[in-house]
Write a structure and sequence with these properties.
Elements: H1 4-11, H2 15-23, H3 30-43, H4 49-56, E1 61-66, H5 74-86, E2 91-96, H6 103-116, E3 121-125, H7 131-140, E4 144-147, E5 158-159, H8 163-176, E6 182-186, H9 192-204, E7 217-219, H10 224-236, E8 243-246, H11 249-261, E9 271-276, E10 289-292, H12 295-311, E11 324-326
């Protein structure tokens, strides 16, 4: 691979002159520009990214940590991050964890890895990070934002939907549709965002005369398989229900699959509601009614805030992003039982 010294030698100029021509900065003659340009083309020279970083004081690389590389939830978020960075001539370096069960340790290791690669800033996604973890990340790289996590002293760097309000919205939607006999497949017990949405869901039920403690529930793992297994467990409990709320869309998709397999059509026999609005939720049979969490917009604005921190830019950042129910065909309206 050709170096700047090779270019300078072929062009018959000093290394400093060749560098100024390639950088487009500093005084150089028209003849030097012509000769260096010709040498660059002849040698197919590409400036070293590392060298440019040293000259400019930044790499234009942003480090991104994602808790797990599986399922259909994270891919659109990564795509939104990439598009936002690409639009501002920045690059993305991604580190993945192995799952939500050891998320804290893996996220901190990811932050160290990405910082060591010269990233100008970090976008960290995950609900398991504690305030002391955020302090540790700030010491590694002060330019960072958190996605799907809120920590008070870093409030301006946190981008997190209001899961409590979204869970309440899910409960209100099912109850307003006439359902009173509900069942729930929650997410993992250790997941903070799951806890928030379920707290919002259960706290709303008394408004409709429903005792939250009487609602049958099981825990899943945010996978379609756990949605199938959870639905089977709930049906075997002999607790009759007309509507099933699943704490994410992938579990809801698994639930719909199992109900169809055993001959309980959705929504005629059981209504099913999900959470997140992943792309697959629109093509289930029937299409899934879900709480639309605008993850693309949230992730995009998190990137904008991070770029402002890294480079002193003033990209407008939107924080009030509306969560709503996307009504499809998996929930039917019925008259409340008396």
């Amino acid at each position: 691979m050709a170096t700047i010294k090779d270019v300078a030698k072929l062009a018959g100029v000093g290394v400093g002159t060749a560098s100024r021509v390639i950088a487009g900065k500093g005084p150089v003659s028209a003849d030097a520009i012509r000769r260096v340009t010709k040498a660059v083309e002849q040698l197919q020279y590409r400036p070293s990214h590392a060298a440019r970083s040293l000259q400019k004081g930044h790499s234009k690389m942003i480090g991104v940590f994602i808790p797990v590389v599986s399922g259909s939830f994270y891919t659109p978020i990564l795509n939104a991050i990439f598009i936002a960075l690409h639009a501002h001539q920045c690059h993305m370096v991604v580190n993945f964890g192995l799952g939500i069960h050891d998320e804290r340790r893996e996220a901190l290791a990811g932050a160290e890895f990405l910082t060591d690669r010269g990233c100008d800033g970090l976008l960290m996604m995950g609900t398991g990070l504690t305030p002391s973890d955020a302090d540790r990340i700030a010491r590694l790289q002060p330019n960072f934002v958190l996605l799907n996590r809120s920590i008070a002293r870093f409030e301006g760097q946190c981008f997190n939907p209001d899961h409590h309000a979204a869970g309440a919205l899910a409960a209100r939607t099912l109850c307003e549709a006439g359902h009173r006999r509900l069942a729930v497949i929650e997410g993992p017990e250790g997941s903070r965002d799951n806890s928030l949405r379920m707290r919002g869901f259960y706290s709303t039920l008394p408004e409709y005369g429903i005792d939250p403690d009487a609602v049958p529930r099981v825990h899943g793992t945010f996978t379609p398989q756990s949605g199938r297994a959870g639905t089977q467990e709930l049906l075997h409990s002999q607790e009759r229900f007309t509507a099933l709320f699943c704490a994410n869309d992938e579990m809801a998709i698994g639930a719909i699959s199992y109900l169809g397999q055993i001959g309980l059509p959705v929504p005629q026999d059981v209504s099913v509601m999900g959470y997140d609005n992943i792309e697959l939720s629109a093509v289930t049979a029937p299409p899934l009614t879900t709480v639309l969490i605008p993850w693309r917009e949230i992730a995009t604005n998190a990137v904008y805030r991070l770029l402002d921190l890294c480079y002193g830019w003033c990209i407008p950042v939107q924080r009030e992003i509306v969560t709503r129910v996307l009504w499809r065909d998996s929930v039917r309206r019925t008259e409340p039982e008396r």
